[in-house]
Amino acid sequence: MNKSPSKRGSCGGWSPSVARRNMRFLWSVENDKLDGVGFSLTFTVQTCPETAQDWSRLVRYVSEALMRGTKVSPSAMRLHWVTEWQKRGVPHLHGAVYFAQEAVEAAGGASAMEHRLVSVWTHLAASYGAQKWSQTVKHIYDALGWSQYVAKHAARGARHIQRSSHCLPSGWQGQTGRMWGKSGVWPVAEALKFEFGNMAAYAAFRRLMRSYSKAQARVEMNAARSALVQA
């Protein structure tokens, strides 16, 4: 237990422990139980918020708007987001959001929802120069789409260029606010615990899991290639 936790809003950016917590959550999601219609998000701003508190406030407003619903978008079932930085020292937001199938159909379908989600961001981030043509929203078609999202955002550690403290905006050092968050109900598997009698058994298990992970990655890669060829 951390006896002296840092206050929210005074976090120092992406640390190894923060990256691990985000990774563990993403890996715990059971993608075959993800219902609804999903969308991946990349939201940017032209002008860097003056303080980390300003950015945290914007992220909170967007999260609440997506979960609560707005005039242009229905309420979401679940949301995951991460903050990263561009090389020019400006933050941007990545995320995945899921809506009920009926809500998406009532909103005009997946393509219409992509435009609606962009409108939510550009409205709330207008004071920072957010333009609709600089935003990316893509429909997550199936479990493979979620796996691609996880592969991207769980694999990045604290030393990744977009998470490096060297890219922090001026004046944000030591007070970046939360780096990732989640809302709604996510289907997650309970963590498994294993006990090994000796290091040799642990090493053998690690080799087994590494081989399994590589095999699964090859299967997904081949499936994606086949889908591209057929398209």
UniProtKB/TrEMBL annotation:
Entry-linked InterPro entries: ORF2/G2P_dom
Source species, domain of life: Bacteria
Domain Replication-associated protein ORF2/G2P: 41-151
Full protein name: Replication-associated protein ORF2/G2P domain-containing protein
Organism listed in the record: Acetobacter cerevisiae
